[in-house]
Amino acid sequence: MSDRSMTLARATRIRMNFEAAGAQVVDPPYLQPAGTLLDLYGEDIRARAYVTSDAVRGEQMLRPDFTVPVVEMHMRHGAEPARYTYAGEVFRRQEQDPERASEYLQVGYEVFDRSDSAGADAEVFALFALQLRGLPLRAATGDIGILMAAVQGLETTEVRKAALMRHIWRPRRFRALLDRFAGRTPPPESRRKLLETEGTLTGSAVEVGKRRAHEIQARVDLLREDAKAPPIAEHELLALEALMMVRETLPFATEQLRDIAVDLPQINPALDRLDARAAALKARGIDIDNLDFEASYGRTSMEYYDGFVFGFYAEARPDLPPIASGGRYDALTRQLGQGAEIPAVGGVLRPDLMLELEEGQS
Description:
Blueprint: H1 3-20, E1 24-25, E2 31-33, H2 34-41, E3 51-54, E4 58-62, H3 67-77, E5 82-91, E6 103-112, H4 117-131, E7 138-143, H5 144-152, H6 158-166, H7 171-181, H8 189-195, H9 213-227, H10 234-245, E8 247-249, H11 250-260, H12 268-283, E9 292-294, E10 308-313, E11 324-328, H13 330-336, E12 344-349, H14 351-361
Parallel strand pairs: 1-5, 7-9
Antiparallel strand pairs: 2-4, 3-4, 5-6, 6-12, 7-10, 8-9, 10-11, 11-12
């Protein structure tokens, strides 16, 4: 049997396991409208996707993942609650790492259920752990919702909080903004010169790219107002830094986060959800005492997740991407739901990488 045949057979077997868990099989088209993905991720997605176009359908992308089209499908037609599974190819450009596959099979499982978010998180994680049983993998978990709650509760301007929220998934940019808003670093030279501009910008001749004078003036006024705001308080900054550094087994991580919540009380509701998830995981037989939790996990690769996140890694093979990953994406349903929303969580597995690890064990 060829490698591809073996991968397809494994993918089919996993998908059937997900069907047995109550999931409906779906098969989104290979070509997806580019507009939706660009709205979600901005122009950054072009560096990771294959783009084409035609006169009738406009700009299209070979599907870079399944989650977005599955969410769109559910928000248009899905009943509640719902569980979906799929198996098929996704396409990712790999210009930075040509050794990685640009086309590969994913098998996924998605849950849309508003009755018990902690239970749904545990359901997905436990089901994935079962498919991966016997492989030499480390499971990592996190919760991006805790950092989001910390940022949203900072005693600073809404403009600054919005800027930090936009860049949670870009740790370097987030760090630079945090240092600037805390007064640790000065604003960029270009911004200082703009703020020093006297008076107002007038006249139709004043343009930068496609921006008109009134748009530039509005931006300058916003920056001037922001410059008057006091820096983020030192105790909040130190607590936020401590939060981002938490990396422990789940029980010890929870203890550390509760200590940090003394200075960041806005994270307590997110920590209550973490406690509920831990109890649900334990009820499904997960050894939470040895389950790793990283407060910053998922911040470089999980752009639409806003709560629980997880991944399974082969530590002996650091050259491999995650064998499986997933998490909660409630906000994505709100973005794609045209006014509707529903709590949702899911993940994907790579059957080709599972087979590669099994071959290494033999």
